């Protein structure tokens, strides 16, 4: 890089202001169109090419998939609109700074680390998805459903290149993330629609009944997968983004919104991405399952690969490769951006730019390991369950603190660095419900809402006791 270009680059880095420790000023607010493009791009994305096929591997029925997704995605939109966006436009703070004011610096540091790392792993799955498309021209061996480790040098090189590009875009700040999504989301949506229609033709579907019969009454799950019912689909699709809506991570996004009605734009992501795109991707996988290669896997008691690149390429050729690459990119961008804000909250003297690059590096390393993408249904359930309850602390304080006589922003007002009430509420809720899942074999997503509600209620009760004890002392 030439000296003058380097100086311009460093000057840009110093002036990337993401308002990490202050409310977003009115001059930087954005209208609903910025969020529409971002959510359409983020959720009509690379992971959709994986999740759609994974529903087939879970033996889901037609009714359970089609109706279950309608309901679950609607509940997710309501969560974003009436919880996340509502609080975001009133406070205009990042999740991390708002938690710091409530929890204290020491406690929130542990949360920010967990939040940032889990978001990096999720972004790593997006990098994996894009890499399966980039590697096609190089005749790269694709990861299998049961793979956990990198399968060759070509895979490693492709993932590193893809991850570097994604990280640099994310590091340039919210404006770059939003612009990238707005530019690319129409192309991605078109690609999913094209894949769906081409797959229907390849499957010989000419009526709604034939479309319905692709899933029919369901089937036995593939080896290593669990059986999904109607309630699995509803609850999983509601809480697959639990960390972002009821977990309040998207406070960091909607703090830029002019008003809370921008929360409705999440429907673009849910019904284009988490509905049309999941079903279209499942159709691609249904085509692949009829191939000799897939039948050989099944005959040997193995689950066929769900690598998105080849699935899209087999349907719409080069356009499919391009769509998978861009879809992974537009999803990883905002995810790495969120992770960068989490790391910046831990190291406040560091710029968001460099912390986002750090997040991108962690995500790229995670992308080398296919397990994060191949076990995406399980991983998404875990990360939502871990992170969502802390969002309940913000929600319950915002709506109920005054009624309960609880002081808001306790840590900021008292100078506490570790709010014991928050820690106990989260630890008890997490521990009890995770134990129930592990010991009784209960689907983890079924316990996300109980853990969230428990954390919010316990936080208010413990806070009342703590604050009365502090006042008495």
Automatic annotation (TrEMBL):
Gene3D superfamilies: Hydantoin permease
Keywords: Membrane, Transmembrane, Transmembrane helix
A molecular function GO annotation: cytosine transmembrane transporter activity
Residue ranges of the TM segments: 65-89, 110-133, 153-171, 183-208, 228-247, 268-291, 311-332, 353-373, 379-400, 420-436, 442-462
Gene Ontology cellular-component annotations: plasma membrane
Keyword Ion transport among record annotations: no
Lineage top rank: taxon: Bacteria
Name recorded for this polypeptide: Purine-cytosine permease
Organism: Flavilitoribacter nigricans (strain ATCC 23147 / DSM 23189 / NBRC 102662 / NCIMB 1420 / SS-2)
């Amino acid at each position: 890089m030439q000296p003058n270009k380097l100086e311009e680059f460093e000057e840009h880095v110093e002036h990337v202001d993401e308002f990490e420790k202050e409310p977003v000023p009115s001059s930087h607010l954005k209208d609903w169109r910025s969020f529409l493009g971002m959510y359409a791009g983020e959720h009509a994305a690379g992971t959709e090419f994986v999740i759609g096929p994974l529903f087939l591997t879970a033996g889901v029925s037609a009714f359970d998939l089609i109706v279950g997704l309608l309901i679950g995605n609607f509940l997710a939109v309501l969560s974003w609109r009436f919880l996340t966006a509502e609080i975001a436009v009133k406070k205009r703070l990042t999740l991390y700074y708002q938690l710091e004011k409530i929890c204290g610096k020491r406690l929130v540091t542990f949360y920010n680390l967990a939040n940032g790392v889990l978001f990096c792993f999720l972004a790593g799955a997006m990098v994996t998805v894009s890499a399966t498309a980039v590697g096609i021209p190089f005749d790269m061996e694709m990861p299998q459903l049961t793979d956990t480790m990198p399968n060759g040098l070509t895979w490693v090189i492709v993932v590193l290149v893809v991850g570097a590009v994604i990280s640099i875009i994310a590091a340039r700040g919210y404006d770059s993330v939003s612009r990238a999504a707005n530019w690319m989301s129409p192309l991605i949506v078109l690609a999913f629609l094209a894949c769906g229609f081409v797959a229907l033709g390849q499957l010989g579907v000419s009526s709604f009944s034939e479309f319905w019969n692709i899933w029919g009454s369901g089937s036995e799950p593939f080896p290593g997968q669990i059986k999904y019912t109607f309630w699995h689909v509803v609850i999983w699709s509601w809480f697959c983004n639990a960390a972002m809506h009821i977990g309040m991570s998207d406070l960091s996004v909607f703090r830029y919104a002019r008003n809370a009605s921008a929360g409705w734009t999440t429907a673009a992501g849910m019904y284009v991405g988490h509905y049309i795109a999941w079903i279209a991707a499942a159709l691609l996988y249904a085509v692949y399952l009829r191939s000799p290669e897939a039948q050989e896997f099944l005959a040997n008691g193995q689950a066929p690969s769900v690598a998105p690149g080849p699935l899209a390429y087999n349907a719409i050729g080069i356009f499919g490769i391009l769509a998978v690459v861009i879809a992974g990119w537009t999803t990883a961008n905002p995810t790495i951006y969120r992770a960068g804000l989490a790391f910046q909250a831990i190291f406040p003297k560091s710029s968001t730019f460099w912390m986002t690059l750090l997040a991108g590096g962690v995500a790229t390393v995670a992308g080398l390991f296919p397990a994060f993408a191949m076990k995406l249904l399980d991983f998404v359930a875990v990360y939502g369950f871990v992170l969502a309850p802390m969002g309940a602390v913000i929600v319950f304080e915002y709506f109920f603190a005054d009624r309960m006589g609880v002081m808001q922003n306790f840590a900021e007002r008292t100078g506490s660095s570790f709010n014991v009430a928050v820690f106990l509420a989260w630890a008890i809720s997490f521990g009890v419900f995770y134990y129930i899942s592990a010991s009784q074999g209960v689907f983890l997503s079924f316990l996300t809402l109980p853990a969230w509600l428990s954390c919010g209620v316990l936080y208010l009760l413990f806070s009342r006791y703590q604050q009365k004890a502090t006042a008495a002392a």
